[in-house]
Specification:
This protein is an alpha+beta fold. The protein has eleven helices and 18 strands. Strands 1, 2, 3, 4, 5, 6, 7, 8, 9, 10, 11, 12 and 13 form a 13-stranded mixed beta sheet that branches. Strands 15-18-17 form a three-stranded mixed beta sheet, covered by helices on one side. Helix 2 crosses helix 3. About 16% of the residues have low confidence.
Length: 367
């Protein structure tokens, strides 16, 4: 099956996807988690389809069955003749048995009705709005609910047109600082491949670059609830000046295919996940110093430093000598250019650098 062409209704009618949503099959859960990593452009529609699945079945479980039956058939009667799936209304004497029947028949058939219900009510005219900060830039954004987002370089967020009305879901790739407008009725949730971060009114930073092995949430103010999707949906609470650092095996979604074992296995323990934010001698919090145009390194390897420099200055950094990858550097820089930073590093560890022009400037590092 070509999963790349599946829309919400197709996903909700697929038995493998249903098993992923309700967690009934470890194999299907592992398959879809791997699929999301390998196809980041499909992440939003998969998250949305899963959310619809969970929402409807929560309603069916909690609400009055007869009322739900009446609402469902009312929605179905409104579908035009071009609907993907056509269902004729049953005879009146059979209608009271609809919901028990939905529960008893196969999951795929039941969810097909779910797909119709949600697709034509929520997604037919649904639009997605994307905010992007390219490499070498940062961007300040005010969301429709009044919350403020500062996007770091090489990052993007996505929201739907229902944001601030019925939900406050934000889908993040990269790094962003969130100053959330309080709204107890609509929790603010930041979704990343590794974790979901839920807040009511708070300020926090989330770092989740797709090609990096660390996903991190740092809480500055308020209270957040973090669900570790790659940690069997473990839920943890963060308090001010704490952060959760989730490490996973390195995944390159372009050049490699992660195995089920490598993706689900982890050495993280509860004690190792939660850390305390530490102020630098200058009074800065390293995790959010980027908001103030500051680069802070604290005994960081040259490989990790290079990743940050690439995003910060919009360049490509290449190591021509593996021995210098493990060099470690400490320092704080504010609004300095790339060459000032590299020259400072050269004072403590010997290496050479050479720049090459191009559409994206390249910096070659050698011993």
């Amino acid at each position: 099956m070509n999963f790349g062409n599946m829309d919400v209704s197709d996903l909700l009618a697929d038995e493998s996807f249903i098993n992923y949503c309700n967690g009934s099959s470890p194999e299907d859960v592992a398959f879809w988690e791997t699929y999301i990593i390998e196809n980041p452009d499909r992440r939003l529609i998969i998250e949305y389809a899963k959310e619809n699945f969970l929402q409807l079945f929560n309603v069916l479980a909690e609400a009055d069955m007869d009322e739900q039956e009446e609402r469902l058939w009312s929605k179905l009667k409104l579908l035009d003749s071009e609907s993907t799936v056509h269902i004729e209304a049953p005879e009146e004497k059979k209608s009271s048995k609809l919901i028990p029947l939905l529960i008893k028949i196969t999951a795929a058939a039941a969810v097909l009705l779910v797909a119709i219900f949600f697709t034509f009510n929520d997604t037919k005219n649904k639009t997605v709005k994307t905010f992007v900060a390219a490499y070498g830039e940062k961007k300040n954004i005010q969301l429709p609910d009044g919350s403020i987002v500062i996007l770091n370089a090489g990052s993007k967020i996505e929201i739907t047109e229902s944001f601030g009305v019925s939900t406050r879901n934000v889908y993040l790739e990269g790094e962003a600082f969130f100053d959330v407008k309080h709204n107890v009725k609509l929790p603010f949730i930041v979704h990343t491949p590794a974790m979901d971060v839920k807040a009511l009114g708070t300020a926090f930073n989330v770092m989740a670059y797709p090609n990096e092995k660390i996903t991190e949430t740092s809480l500055i103010r308020g209270l957040v609830e973090v669900t570790l999707k790659e940690g069997n949906n473990r839920v943890m609470v963060l308090y001010p000046n704490q952060k959760i650092e989730w490490k996973r095996p390195f995944v390159n979604p372009v050049n490699s295919k992660p195995s089920i074992v490598s993706q689900r296995a982890t050495l993280n323990t509860p004690d190792s996940l939660v850390k305390t934010l530490v102020l630098t001698d200058g009074g800065d919090i390293k995790e959010i110093a980027w908001k103030e145009n500051k680069l802070i390194f604290d005994n960081d390897s040259f490989v990790d430093v290079a990743l940050l420099l690439e995003r910060w200055y919009g360049v490509r950094i290449e190591f021509r000598d593996d021995t210098i990858k493990n060099y470690r550097f400490t320092g704080t820089f504010e609004k300095e250019d790339l060459y000032t930073v590299l020259d400072f590093f050269k004072e403590s560890r010997y290496f050479n650098y050479e720049t090459k022009p191009g559409e994206i400037k390249s910096v070659s590092l050698s011993k």
